[in-house]
Amino acid sequence: MSIVVDKDILQHAILIADAIVSSKNVNTILSNCLFHIYRDSIEIVSTDNEIGIRTRLDAVSDGEIFFTANGKRFAGILKELPKGEVVIDISENYQIDIKTKAKDIKANYTLVGTSKDEYPEIPFFYDDNVIEINQSVLRDMFRKVLHAAATDTIKPVFNGVYLVSDTPGMLTVVATDSRRLAIISRMMENDIQISDGVIIPLKTVSEVVRLLEPTGNCRFSLFENQCFFKIGETEIVSRIIDGQFPNYRQVIPKEQGITAVVETKKINDSLRRAMVFTREPVNKVLMHVGKNSLVLETKTPELGESTEEIPLESNAEGIFSIGVNAQFLMDTLKEIDTFSMNIGFTGQMSPITISPENDDRFISVIMPIQIKSA
Asked: What domains are there in the chain, each with its CATH number?
């Protein structure tokens, strides 16, 4: 059977699905994407047994067939072909012949495909109790907290992002690795009902962020131990993490003894310079907070030392000193897009709070590093 399709659109759709496919996959069939060819469309499916992606595109074919093929190689050859339509012929033994309609290239490329028989079934989008969420808002919320999630899987609840709606009309997104936390809340245009909360794996959230567009809504739903996202013509299904997310409200200090306002770019630039004299993974920097200045100090015997003073405004009556992981602080600053930011201090061994100026619904919390004077 034969298919005619725009090569750029097909390449883009294959790359969407293939993004979750690991080259280290032990199961050979899961190294491929599953192609469903219909008379007027192509559906491409992929899975790593944790996440499933299904995307669709328009095409014209003279029949229907199902097969699997290596997505990276398929997209790779399409990338090198001229713009315009390609003709794809699939034989009964799943040999995939690819030809461009461009007149200046006379060539034929053949991929080896396989039967779909061993490919696992991927659930379709669950249409009950669907929540509509603005794509731009959701992408911004996810991006602002992702840095705080744990990248290991020792404690699975830390290896995900928590979604909850414990206030009518408001969605809250939280991530933490137990040493830092980021939380953001936004009012939604549509009704939100996730009162019990759900923990979505970090990999799933990263894929969703990759697919979210600047405009339009995405659809979100839950069913049993799975969550579903529908973004345009693409669906993502993922398991949800089983477990109790920490009581994040208790981590955020209710009052700060010292509050300060500092220019975001100045502290970020100063931290980048200070990082040269720190050692991973602690990246220890001392912050000396005065009424009108902040001094960042680093000292690592085998590397060197630095001190840099930048202006700030605070209610400190003397000099308050605290240790912090500079990388954690810089990760937070990357997500703050206001000219100035607020920093709150309670004590040398109490959490530091950071938030953009005039936005108390986005808060980052970083646990301090003990210093000798503590």
From this structure: 2-112 (3.10.150.10), 131-248 (3.10.150.10), 253-366 (3.10.150.10)
pLDDT tens string 260-284? 999 999 999 999 999 999 999 899 9
% the chain with pLDDT above 70: 98
- For the beta carbon of residue 238, count every other beta carbon within 10 angstroms: 24
Assigned token pair, 322: 């605290």
Starting at the edge strand that comes first in sequence, how are the strands of the sheet with 226-231 ordered?
65-69, 33-37, 41-47, 51-58, 234-239, 226-231, 217-223, 131-134
**Mean pLDDT for the chain?**
92
CA gap 167, 249 in Å, rounded: 14
Please tell me the distance from the alpha carbon of residue 249 to that of residue 202, in angstroms, as a whole number: 21
Q: How much is the pLDDT for 26?
A: 59
Cα torsion angle, 240, 243, 248, 251, sign: negative
Q: 3-state class of 352 per DSSP?
A: strand
State how far the Cα of 300 lies from the Cα of 298, in Å rounded to an integer: 7
Tokens of 319: 């000099």
- How would you class 66 by CB atoms within 10 Å of its CB: exposed for 0-12, middle for 13-18, buried for 19 or more? middle
Asked whether the predicted pLDDT for residue 132 surpasses 50, the reply is: yes
Residue burial 30-48, b: 16+ Cβ < 10 Å; e: rest: bbbbbbbbeeeebbbbbbe
Residue 27 reports pLDDT greater than 90: no
